[in-house]
Amino acid sequence: MLRIRGSIGDWPVDLTLEMDDADWARLGAQLQVEKSEVSAPASKPVSQDDSLWQIARDLLRKAGQLSGPDLLDQLEGLTGSAAAGKRLLVRLRHSPDVKVESGGDTPIYRWIA
């Protein structure tokens, strides 16, 4: 028997699953299959995040330098999302190829590589 208690949002959850030995054996066998599939080495395909990261780097490299708000506007346009644009901006801020300088009211992102 397996009991799960907790909540989903404001809803309380109290779930009891009854499993016999055969059920546990099937579950264990399935977990072993999934574990071996996960641990198998595979080539990593280029994700959209990797592509956007390269485009963001190229954008700043070609510009040489951009103010934080201008760069963020371009990254938001590139990604179509304010949150994704901010993630790229933070990633650029921490990149060894980028130096962030104080530009008065706004930071200046400068390509240094």
Plain-language structure description:
The chain is an alpha+beta fold and 113 residues long. It has 2 domains: 2-39; 48-111, Winged helix-like DNA-binding domain superfamily/Winged helix DNA-binding domain (Arc Repressor Mutant, subunit A, Orthogonal Bundle), CATH 1.10.10.10. Helix content is 52%, strand content 26%. The protein contains 4 helices and 5 strands, in the order ββααβααββ. The strands form 2 sheets. Strands 3-5-4 form a 3-stranded antiparallel β-sheet. A two-stranded antiparallel ribbon has the order 1-2. Strand 4 and strand 5 form a beta hairpin. Helix 3 (68-79) crosses helix 4. The mean pLDDT is 82.
Question: What is the element layout, followed by pairings?
Answer:
Blueprint: E1 2-8, E2 11-17, H1 21-39, H2 48-63, E3 65-67, H3 68-79, H4 82-93, E4 98-103, E5 106-111
Antiparallel strand pairs: 1-2, 3-5, 4-5
